[in-house]
Specification:
Strand order of the largest sheet: 4-5-13-10-11-12
Bound molecules: pyridoxal-5'-phosphate, zinc ion
Radius of gyration: 21 Å
Strand content: 5-15%
CATH topology of one domain: Rossmann fold
Helix content: 25-40%
Number of helices: 15
CATH architecture of one domain: 3-Layer(aba) Sandwich
Structural class: alpha/beta
Order of helices and strands: EEEHEHEHEHEHEHEHHEHEHHEHHEHH
Length: about 400
Amino acid sequence: MKEYEVECIRCGAHYTKEDVVYTCRKCDGLLNIKYDYSEIDPKQVVNAKGEGVWKYRTLLPFSNETEQVTINEGNTPLYRCDRLAKSIGISDLWVKHEGLNPSGSFKDRGMTVGVTKAVELGVGGVACASTGNTSASLAIFAAKADLPCFVLLPKGKVALGKVAQAMMHGAKVFSLRGNFDDALRIVRVLCEEENLYLLNSVNPYRLEGQKTIAFEVSEKLEWNVPDRLILPVGNAGNISAIFKGFSELNILGITDEIPKMTGIQAAGAKPVVDAFKAAKAEITPEANPETIASAIRIGDPVNAAKALHAIRDSGGVAESVTDDEITEAQLELARVEGIGVEPASAASIAGLKKLVELGEIAKDERVVCITTGHLLKDPERVISICEAPIEVDADINVLRKMLRAV
Ligand SMILES: *Cc1c(COP(=O)(O)O)cnc(C)c1O
Ligand SMILES: [Zn+2]
């Protein structure tokens, strides 16, 4: 059995693998899963066989005998994007498309580990608050594990494809008259009271799964990490997780650098960006977050402390982009590189553009952008920004004329 500890990042209190705990009972600080790295053989990481999240089980908090709740998550493509790079004015750009996970977002990486942990703990059910993708993913893994699943969604604020997934895979779906931050606050209390296992990204086991993004990026680049990694930031779990992944490779001596972690938020929901720019240790929550990028419409990101540490410690930055900039980037990525993403994911590309224009990103940096969710998650948005299909009679002469007029 691999040894690890669950440690509070604020006061250092320790918890065991049997404890059902999400934040520190003494100080409410975030928790971190910590291994004895001197006991881990780097060769087992570098020479690991298989594919996806569980390929890296040497660095996951389970024994080799644990029965995994898996639907082949991870192992997403890392595309080299020369045409987009040229248009933005840099030379070495890659996009890792996490929208190609089984449920269409990176959340699957966290859920395969989180729901495997739920089964190990023997909980009675699982629950989450969600802007959409967390609920879609949790519903699938709960179905696979035969666990009751409860999800709280902010009413009218969730993209259609995501609600459809949660419903189809059998979650009990509640539509909350409130925003995501309200939903998370309520579900946290309910989980404590009702013996449900909470699978929002405050749960440190979820982040263990998501850190494998760092392993896959590094491995694809032959263990030479990129200069910079850019991704959208909502509840700020993913940026914290990926930073942890890169840090572990560094501690093990597999890689010699950590990429500059660069977090992008939407202009109407940017507490992490504000705290970063003001050099503050804590965020001021945004009471009424607004953006078309519903996956990052979050005013009080629970992992802000970890994310600010990741950005500062790696020499990265945090920046915000407008909804128009997000839409423009979404269209360009789709039409120049053939990569279809939902709005939140396009924030990484919009952020890259802006930071290149500001001179914050050097033209010769090797940049990896993470696109977090698939285009089909949010079909309503597509319909509102693209030219509508043109209705025509079934007459070849009419079509001939119309095509020639283009
Ligand atoms: C969850 C999600 C995010 C935000 O990730 P955090 O870990 O909450 O910062 C961004 N994009 C998409 C598509 C998501 O589903
Ligand atoms: Zn503590």
